[in-house]
Hints:
The protein is α/β, with parallel strands linked by helices. It has 11 helices and 11 strands. Helices cover 35% and strands 18% of the residues.
Amino acid sequence: MSKLELTLAVSHYDHVLDIVLGRVPVEGISLECMELPLHDIFQRTVGYADFDVAEMSFAKYVSMRSQGDDRLIALPVFLSRVARHSAIYVRKDRIRTAADFAGKRVGVPEWAQTAAVYGRGVLAHELGVDLTKINWVQAGLGEAGRAEKVPLKLPAGLQLTAISDKSLTDMLDKGELDAVVAATPPRCFHTNPDVVRFYDNWLEVEIAYAKEKKILPIMHVLVVKKSVLDKAPWAAGNLFHAFDVARKNSMKRCGNLGATPVPVPWFSEAVRRAKEAMGSDFWPYGLEANRPTLEAFLQFAFEQGVCHRHLKPEEIFPPQTHHAVRV
């Protein structure tokens, strides 16, 4: 029997490397693997579904699913995870406390950017900020012209203005914005002494949050075309299993603390702190092992109008992929 031939578009990750190099085969499937820039993958996946299997923004995915668009089906394979208390950048001459956000102009690259959803979740749920009391601005982070990629269903009272001829970085630098919530630092964070992270001790805060709530924000998931799964429903389980094996192999490499699997000094200390906060399997796949993170994100996304209805984790992944055996 011939194998199912599929294309895969993904960024470069150690926990996917064994798939890309063919060290971990996918039973019944032959993958044509492409490592591409994230922007290209997201644009081609969300807009055109160019790939059979692809990395995708978690926020874009759940927004589409909440609107009944099931052309893409996610597997609980979490390619990128980044804590986001550190994603809140402010002008320290305008904002020093949570109460100072009221009435301010705060920028986001896209309302439906995953990092921005988590950042606003921190504002609302950790700091008690009323998101409707903020004047929100949507624009490109470093370049003008960025626009939303999915329809929104904003809550009553929330103000969001799209600006197409200026960047968030320039507006924050010049004082036209008071803060920015974004996945990467605005350039002026490195050049303007008045632009700082809201949390001075962001790393300690993020580690404590992960340890207490067992939430490690999920940025990107792996999606498969529904047309593929309609023809070969078994492919979901086989893909999930292979990616989980590749993940476990990567975790073992990370656990070899006498070596450095990535060229980062003190990498072993980062691994030790991650284990202390999240346990030995600090990057799990599957639904149940990630339920606190999934439920928090789906709540944030619904409250903020990224999701058009309140989804449950069970709705967004195939049933045969809900569980992963921990390392």
